[in-house]
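DNA-binding transcriptional LysR family regulator
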Amino acid sequence: MFELIQLRCFVAVAEELHFGRAAARLNMTQPPLSRHIQVLERVMKVPLFYRSSRTVKLTAAGSAFLVEARRVVQLADSAVATARAAAEGRHGLVSLGFTAASGYSFLPRFIANVQKILPDVRFVLKEMVSDEQVESLLSGRIDLGFLRPPVRHPAMVSQEVLRERFIICSPASVPEEERPRRLADFDRLPFITYAPDKARYFHDLLAGLFAGARAEPRFVQYLAQIHTALMLVGAGHGYALVPESSRRLHPDGVVFSELEDGEPIVELQATWRRDADNPALLALVPRLMELCGSD
């Protein structure tokens, strides 16, 4: 069977139709080039070139073989390039966990930014609550998670990638002058809050904010998902506070407004295993802040 070096020599001579130019192109001398062609012809048991003292031409067999030889050489070069790119993190697959709220605006922007600088890195997206992401990171089911703090596990590394404010969601049926503007305004108002088990991060944040403002809303529902809370607000069941990126959902019957005494306290963290060895992930980590930035 022939070897790849013999195919490279054949393609070079076939394209140059000159042994001297082909040898220079391959950075070798002419004698070993000629020997490779001779060995290839013996293996194939057909002449590939007509040779004279002045010209080199392809035989019919050589012309037919050139098409396939080029393809094999190109495939070999592509395989080497792909392997090197994978080893350097420029090519590969990253399994990515994310919370539902991060998918409203942050996640699409992050993926678009990655594609600009690492177009051959692909993602498998898995929507998960934060606790499930931590479990999946520990078990190796995902490589990277976008989740809510805190992450207090020695095997994990976390980096804040986003901080945003809460905004007010009011039923559109409520006149503007009657809508709450500050935390204290929610006292005794019907309020759709977050479940302490499945949305603990948001539940605890709001509990702290209302305690600081000495407000006691009348909690009518405890939910895990922001889009469900927005639907209930639109139906007139109460008010809610959601991360400002939720504006992109444009729910019917809901009016968004600024929380006048609100601060950017809603955090999102990128988290990965300290011993991660996925080259594509390791290529992303040093550039997280660049990739997570706005367009």
